[in-house]
Known about the structure:
single chain; mainly alpha; 2 domains
Amino acid sequence: MNRGMKGAVCMAFSRSLLLAAIGMGTAMGSGVAVAQTNDAYRKTVTQRAERIVAALDISDSGQRDRVVGLIADQYVDLSDAHAARDAALEEEGSDAQAIRDASHRVVVEHHRKFIATLSAELTPQQVDGVKNGMTYGVVPITYEGYLRLVPNLSDEQKRMILANLLEAREYAMDAGSSDEKHGWFGKYKGRINNRLSAAGIDLKQAERDLPKRRAAEQAK
């Protein structure tokens, strides 16, 4: 695709971001219905953001409110981007790959701005807490699961596992559904398992041995 065509695709995608709301309004019958739907979603993601922030131990109420707002805004921005992408994909004669590429660029830009703004408010540990909160805590849960499953992992293997899970989390944060978020972790867990298998670790045998090892530990 030449530069002119890419520019046209980007412009078309930008227009679809606006038209997505119009299309939704037409389908629902009125702009009031759209506003009510948007308000309901904003309320839902604000409540979700409040639960995430509650775990960060932020004492300053102003800072806490700002962070809640940042997280809620990110959810809304991602929802708008995904809706625009899906609306554009449904248009007759649309270039699916070009639309997905344009959507990816929009989402990446939202992600970068979100993390930068969040980092100005929080410590690195707290930013990590937000990322875990937005991805159901899969990173610490899965990492600890690997450590229990294969207790003799080398330090290098531990770093490999954690690095892959953290990379998966960056993509999962931007996913539009729970299934998509878990899908990203599933993809990277496959990479981890392949690396461990190549190192001679039999994960299926480790799973069979785990109950016996737990029983032995509890008996001590």
